[in-house]
């Protein structure tokens, strides 16, 4: 069995992920801390309990500076909800702090912004 990445102990080149994502979170599907994909998490310097698994250590290592939940999920190659559970556990034990995104966007659509994005995409294609 060859491991794809030294940092990813649960991945195999041929088989992919060796354990199901829900196993990483102990079968839990709801975080105890409210996090969205744009929430910023950052390590506090406090050491989490030893009982936490390798994904917790990897996640904590990614949070030396403010890092979005989406970015942590991408690096861990885990679904966003599983990542939220892991990060929430780290917040609960004091190893991470979490902050809501600074800017909340309302649901109204800015037509000029959408047109500018569309124009930019057309120029690239």
Give me a quick take on this structure.
With 125 residues, the protein is α+β, with helices and mostly antiparallel strands.
Q: What distinguishing features does this structure have?
A:
alpha+beta, elongated, three-stranded antiparallel β-sheet, 125 residues, 6 strands
Explain how this protein is built.
The protein has 5 helices and 6 strands; from the N terminus they run E-E-E-H-E-H-E-H-H-E-H. Helix 3 packs across helix 4. Strand 2 and strand 3 form a beta hairpin. The strands form 2 sheets. The chain has a 3-stranded antiparallel β-sheet with strand order 1-2-3. A 3-stranded antiparallel β-sheet has the order 5-4-6. With 125 residues, it is of the alpha+beta class.
Secondary-structure-derived class: alpha+beta
Largest sheet, if any? 3 strands, antiparallel
Helix content: 25-40%
Note the total helix count: 5
Radius of gyration: 18 Å
What separation lies between the terminal Cα atoms?
42 Å
Number of strands: 6
Order of helices and strands: EEEHEHEHHEH
Mass-distribution shape: elongated
Low-confidence stretches: 1-8
């Amino acid at each position: 069995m060859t491991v794809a990445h030294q940092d990813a102990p649960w991945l195999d080149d041929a088989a992919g992920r060796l354990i199901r994502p829900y196993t990483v979170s102990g079968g839990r599907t709801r975080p105890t801390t409210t996090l969205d994909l744009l929430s910023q998490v950052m390590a506090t310097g406090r050491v989490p309990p030893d009982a936490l698994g390798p994904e917790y250590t990897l996640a904590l290592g990614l949070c030396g500076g403010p890092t979005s939940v989406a970015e942590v999920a991408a690096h861990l190659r885990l679904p966003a909800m599983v990542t939220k559970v892991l990060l929430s556990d780290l917040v609960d034990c004091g190893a991470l702090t979490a902050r809501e995104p600074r800017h909340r966007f309302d649901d109204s659509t800015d037509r000029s912004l959408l047109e500018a994005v569309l124009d930019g995409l057309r120029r690239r294609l």
